Amino acid sequence: MKVMRTHKPRPSWSVIVLGSQLMIGHQLGKLLICAIPEYYTVETWYAAYLSHLLAALGAAIGVHTAANIGPQKAPFLPTFLAAAATVPTSYFLYHQRNIFTLLCVVVASLASSYFSVWAPEKPPSNLIGRLKAGACVGLALTAYSGLHGSSMYFNTRVQSLNGTTIPLPEMVANFLRLQPYDEARELMPGIIQCVRMYGSLDVCQHQFLSQLAEISDPNRDSWAFTAVTRQLRGRMRGIDAISK
Questions:
Q1: Where would you find the membrane-spanning parts of this chain (predicted)?
Q2: What is the predicted pLDDT for the residue at 134?
Q3: CB 174 within 8 A of CB 223
Q4: Which of 6, 88, 92, 154: CA 20 to 30 A from 73?
Q5: Three-state secondary structure along the chain?
Q6: Do the Cβ atoms of 184 and 171 come closer than 8 Å?
Q7: What average pLDDT values come out for the chain (244 residues) when binned by 10 residues?
């Protein structure tokens, strides 16, 4: 994407910039919605408004990022306020995430284009400037990867071998609480054999998660045995304390 500096006092509207803003803003808007637990964006009474506000924030960040590439610059606050002004429409667009995310991007793009100005010409950057730019890019990529990881962690559901659907956070919590490390260690030879057979970890991902969910299922006999054992130990300690 390249925007040429002209003699006009303000950068004109560009299809190239709009396309970049739509692509980045729409992706970030949907990613921010999925980065928090689905309970807050689906089941609560404020779910629609929170989803729309997160979409507005992601759209504003994407639009601001695309609008500041090249010889032009645009402020972030007016862009975000314009996108946030569309939150009341979530009353009518409750389940239409794609539509209200695109609406946020378009409105934010119009505001960004209205407030954009030509950036002052800067001298060629030295080594320190390039290191700062590289650090900013690294932080941005880290934050983007963190949003993807948060989205997978909070909204992934795994189906065990007996057909029970377990949320990934609950499965991880059960796994850490029960500590079935010996059983998990026994899964690794099968996963390694599957990877050697198919040559890809993606093919064996479902099998691994299903077996891991089966181990971490709190309804298993091992979990019940552990719970009963803990209760018996607690009662025995209470009896010993009373007898002393």
A1: 45-67, 74-93, 99-119, 131-154
A2: 86
A3: yes
A4: 88
A5: CCCCCCCCCCCCCCHHHHHHHHHHHHHHHHHHHHCCCHHHHHHCCCHHHHHHHHHHHHHHHHHHHHHCCCCEECCHHHHHHHHHCCHHHHHCCCCCHHHHHHHHHHHHHHHHHHHCEECCCCCCCCHHHHHHHHHHHHHHHHHHHHHHHHHHHHHCEEECCCCCEEEHHHHHHHHHHHCCHHHHHHHHHHHHHHHHHHCCHHHHHHHHHHHHHHHCCCCCHHHHHHHHHHHHHHHHHHHHHHHC
A6: no
A7: 55 78 90 88 86 92 86 88 88 79 90 82 73 86 88 78 74 65 63 72 64 58 44 44 44
Distance (Å, whole) CA 212 – CA 175: 8
Give me 54's structure tokens: 């997160």
Residue ranges of the domains in the chain?
15-121, 157-243
Cα angle, residue 151 at apex, residues 150 and 154 outer, rounded to 5°? 80
State how far the alpha carbon of 204 is from the alpha carbons of 191, 208, 211, in Å: 7, 6, 11
* Residue 228 near residue 183 (C-beta atoms within 8 A): no
Q: 159: which strand partners?
A: 165
User: What Cα–Cα distance (Å) separates residue 99 from each residue in 20, 108, 124, 136?
Assistant: 18, 14, 42, 31
Q: What is the structure's pLDDT at 59?
A: 92
